[in-house]
Amino acid sequence: MGLLSFPDLVCYVVFIAFLFTRFWMVSILYAIWWYLDRHRPRQGGRQSAFIRHWTIWKYSKDYFPITLVKTAELDPSRNYLAAFHPHGVLATGAFINLCTESTGISSVFPGIRSHLMMMYFCFWVPFYRDYIMSLGLVSSEKESVTHILSRKGGGNLLSIVVGGVKESLNARPGAYKLVLRNRKGFIRLALMHGAALVPIFSFGENDIYDQVENSPGSWLRWFQDRLHKSIRGSIPLFYGRGVFQYSFGLMPYRRPITTVVGKPIEVQKTPHPSQEEVDRLHQRYVKELENLFEAHKLKYNVPRDQHLEFC
């Protein structure tokens, strides 16, 4: 997760605009707070149960609707590293399920505190940084992972949308192409901290938006790939429905999203894992993710002959 959005730009504009009004002191005081609090996004953030329970999240969940499905218990005395697939255009299922209480994650997994990783540069946005931290979002840096997975007493679920922005470029209805083949950093982190790996697959995540044709080899994909290499971000050109009509707009389609949380994969703590150990666990993880997908796909309207594709 990590594209800068319109709200981010608004926050920058407001912060700068205040400097040229009688409210200039607001920006000055906030800048001081921002500096003193600069390490917080990589130190577990600052969750707010009040904001995570806002009624707007329930309306958002009901719009599609979005459902959270548990297939196994998570022991609240342990810490977990979850990998979320697929990214989709805006990682909607990841946000609603893991950053709000609209689908009842704290009730589904009692004693578990959920965090979701987001690109570090999103925490450079004034005001917005405090808002996203209140929802359980933390910086996608190794220091952030270490801080959460090393907490005594357990009860932490740290989730990573593994495919990232690159995977979002493949998101369109009926697509099941995951960027995972060479994504092994999360595997190494799980080994280093001895955190059980939790596969999560969100059925319907790719179905809520269409994208402008950007198949490999097209000029648009060439531009998007170059942008990704330059700034580690890109711009999916997506569209959906309108507010009062269904033909075109930026509203997502009302199609169900069902996020299935798989059984934890036990991981032996290995402070300095070898590449062979990383590769072995990665292969096991991919197999467990495939099993999770195959076991549930027919329930959620995925054709029997459809299988996951990895790149």
UniProtKB/TrEMBL annotation:
Its EC number is 2.3.1.-. Keywords: Acyltransferase, Endoplasmic reticulum, Lipid biosynthesis, Lipid metabolism, Membrane, Transferase, Transmembrane, Transmembrane helix. It is a multi-pass membrane protein. The chain crosses the membrane at residues 12-36. One of its GO terms (molecular function) is diacylglycerol O-acyltransferase activity. It is an enzyme of class 2 (transferase). It is found in: Endoplasmic reticulum membrane. The keyword Mitochondrion does not apply. GO terms for biological process: diacylglycerol biosynthetic process; triglyceride biosynthetic process. GO terms for cellular component: endoplasmic reticulum membrane. It holds the Pfam family DAGAT. It comes from the Eukaryota. Belongs to the diacylglycerol acyltransferase family. This is Acyltransferase. The lineage of its organism: Eukaryota, Metazoa, Chordata, Craniata, Vertebrata.
